[in-house]
Amino acid sequence: MKRTLTVASVILATIALASPAEAAPEGTPARACSLGTVDLKHPPLGYPVDKINEVAKQLGLAEATGLGLGCDKAVRTDPYSETYPYPKDGPVVLRASETARTQLYCTDSVAFFGKALDTVPVETLVVIGSGCVVEANPIII
After folding, report:
1. Which of 31, 61, 71, 80 has its CA 20 to 30 A from that of 108?
2. Which residues lie below 8 Å from residue 75, measured CB to CB, with a gap of 6+?
3. In whole angstroms, what is the distance from residue 134 CA to residue 38 CA?
4. 30, containing H or E segment
5. How many angstroms separate the CA atoms of 123 and 136, rounded?
């Protein structure tokens, strides 16, 4: 009985610590967003989520759950992959940098070059994601 519990504990621990790269399928493009990423399900106080959702709907995205600003650099999705081109829509991984502690994996996204927020003084590549989850960055695990 004790051995069964130990084996079960190991299996559960393995599942809990599974590489986040498993959530982002192989071939998913990853972008480094030099002006930051925001989990729109838990945004900073006062963040203009309604404005971002409005822009997302205009671009054909159902609901914005993640945002990346300044996402002009392709990075590896996991430690074993190369970089993949981002076609400015579809699944994407967003990080503040390649070695950021966490990342947003979004099952759908749209991107545009412009100013998404009044607080960002320059035009930049903006990525708005939906179906986003925050996960550990497999590059640094």
Report:
1. 80
2. 30, 31, 32, 83, 95, 97, 98, 139
3. 10
4. strand 30-32
5. 29
Tens digits of residue pLDDT in 2-37: 554 444 444 333 334 444 444 688 899 999 999 999
Please list the alpha-helical segments (H only) found in the chain.
Answer: 2-16, 49-58
Distance, CA of 67 to CA of 94 (rounded, Å): 8
Q: Could you give the CA distance from residue 2 to residue 72 in angstroms, rounded to a whole number?
A: 52
Residue type, 72: D
What the block records as the tokens of 28 is 């998913």
| Residue 8: both structure tokens together | 């079960």
The answer to whether the predicted template modeling score (pTM) of the entire model surpasses 0.70 is: yes
Which pair of tokens denotes residue 124?
A: 């930049």
